[in-house]
Design a protein that fits this description.
The protein is α+β, with helices and mostly antiparallel strands. Helices cover 69% and strands 9% of the residues. The protein folds into four domains: 3-200; 246-285; 286-338, no CATH class; 344-489, 2-Layer Sandwich (Heat Shock Protein 90), CATH 3.30.565. The protein contains eleven helices and seven strands. A hairpin with a 3-residue loop joins strand 4 (406-414) and strand 5 (418-425). Helix 6 packs antiparallel against helix 8 (310-338). The longest helix is centred in the middle third of the chain and has 79 residues, at 153-231. The radius of gyration is 59 Å and the shape is rod-shaped. The protein starts with a helix and ends in a 5-residue tail after the last strand.
Length: 494
């Protein structure tokens, strides 16, 4: 299976687990809210129940006070409590509509309340109102008062009413306790499920992450090792590429690439060997006929000089010059082909001593002096390539210097990772359009018939520095001289 599919399915599974956890938490919050609503409703029921009982006591007190004193204040208290109880009973009927037992208790309370009002309160209140009309009415009231209140039946009804409200409240308290226990159990169960799902999601996520990371990293590590081997020149390496995922396909592609690269490198090496052999053969075998031509010209000059006209003598000298140029070109080809073929061992190189040695090989050119900075560094590096670079640059500065008096200066600067060496002259200078051309093999800025140059020296310098991933640049303008700046690694020996 593709890694992208594995990652996608893994994340989908984790998302589903978290979605399930979220859903369970959501249901838990709904259950808690529902329970809070039930508790709030239960609190209202208990509160209204207590108010109802308190109002009953107020009604009884108001009734007795009115009957004893005939004060309107007491009957007003009675009426207010009775009206409030009617509202309470209506509200309680709505709140307990889902509880059959509570509804039965409330119906019983309602019947007792109506019975007490109709059988005791209303007749006594009516009789008390009429008692002031005549003595017979007062006697009738007293008789009714003794019949209704003194016998104790009214108190029994009140006690029965209080008992029913007590049962009503106790039942409500029991329901509240059950709801609390159910909610607590539900919350604990939800916590356990949520924790289990979260833990499982975490473990699954970690397992998937470890699997993907291990699978991908192991494949990448193999590819890195393979790439390192290729960079070191081991082009025949390969890696074990299994599976149909992206890493397997990439591994097989790398194996194919390494195989093609190995074939191409082998072919390139054969071509380079053939080219080197060709350069050697050309430079070596062509010298023989050139020497033969030179010998023939020499013999003609020696044996027939007195017979030759001045024009023929001039032509013979021109031929010999062309032969020398051809030999120099062949030597240049051979030198250029040898650059980079043989690695030289590193050794301690004192640049001051190296430049003094080069000074002994410079062509004689009166009026041109070489100035070398005194404090040149000591390096642990290849001597011959560095010597070739300095030799070609300094000889080039001497060769193309056209002034009667001039100088060539060699100095350096030090950077963080490399040295910059400068070869500066005050010669004729070079136009910017030729700054790249002069580093190409066989390219010169002078007419070959008027100036003897092979155009190989700067090309050799460029090749030596390119092989080592170093740089060379030129600062020059016509009439201002030229400065060649090249870099060399900072492997200084103190």
């Amino acid at each position: 299976m593709k890694i992208s599919y594995v990652i996608l399915f893994s994340f989908l599974m984790i998302l589903l687990l978290f979605a399930a956890t979220t859903y369970i938490n959501f249901k838990q919050s709904e259950k808690i809210n529902e329970n809070h609503e039930l508790l709030a409703r239960s609190s209202i029921i208990l509160k209204q129940s207590n108010r109802f009982q308190r109002n009953i006591l107020n009604m009884v007190s108001g009734l007795r006070g009115y009957l004893l004193t005939n004060e309107v204040f007491f009957i007003q208290s009675y009426d207010s409590a009775m009206l409030e109880n009617d509202e309470i009973l209506d509200e309680l009927s709505v709140l307990i509509k889902d509880s059959v037992q509570q509804k039965n208790l409330l119906d019983g309370i309602l019947e007792l309340n109506k019975y007490w009002i109709n059988e005791f309160a209303l007749p006594l209140i009516e009789a008390r109102k009429n008692a002031t009309v005549s003595d017979s009415s007062m006697n009738a009231f007293n008789k009714l008062y003794r019949a209704k209140l003194v016998t104790g039946m009214e108190k029994e009804i009140n006690r029965s009413l209080q008992q029913k409200f007590k049962e009503f409240s106790n039942h409500e308290y029991a329901v509240r306790e059950q709801q609390k226990l159910a909610l607590s159990s539900f919350i604990q169960r939800t916590k356990d499920i949520s924790f289990s799902l979260t833990l499982f999601s975490f473990i699954a996520g970690m397992a998937i992450a470890i699997f993907i990371a291990t699978h991908i990293s192991s494949g990448i590590v193999k590819m890195v090792h393979m790439a390192d081997s290729i960079s070191k020149g081991e082009y025949t390496v390969s890696m074990k590429a299994e599976g149909k995922d992206e890493l397997g396909k990439l591994g097989r592609s790398l194996n194919n690439m390494a195989g093609i690269l190995s074939e191409n490198i082998s072919l390139l090496q054969r071509k380079n060997e053939e080219l080197n052999q060709f350069a050697y053969i050309v430079s070596h075998d062509l010298k023989a006929p050139l020497r033969g031509i030179d010998n023939v010209v020499t013999w003609i000059q020696e044996d027939h000089m007195h017979e030759l006209s001045p024009k023929v003598v001039e032509y013979l000298e021109l031929i010999k010059g062309r032969i020398i140029r051809a030999e120099n070109l062949l030597n240049g080809i051979l030198s250029y082909s040898r650059v980079g073929r043989e690695l030289q061992p590193n050794e301690v190189v004192d640049v001051n001593e190296l430049l003094e040695e080069i000074q002994g090989y410079l062509p004689e050119k009166p009026g041109i002096t070489l100035h070398i900075e005194k404090n040149m560094p000591k390096l642990f590096t290849e001597k011959l390539p560095l010597m070739q670079v300095f030799m070609n640059l300094i000889v080039n500065a001497y060769k193309y210097h056209t002034k009667a008096n001039g100088s060539v200066q060699v100095y350096h600067t030090k950077n963080d990772h490399y040295y910059e060496f400068y070869v500066e002259d005050d010669g004729p200078g070079i136009s910017k359009e030729y700054h790249k051309k002069i580093f190409m093999i066989f390219q010169t800025l002078e007419n070959r018939d008027s100036f003897e140059s092979t155009g190989v020296g700067l090309a050799i310098v460029k090749k030596i520095l390119d092989d080592r991933k170093l740089t060379i640049r030129l600062n020059s303008e016509p009439g201002t001289g030229s400065t060649f700046i090249f870099t060399w690694p900072l492997n200084e020996i103190v």
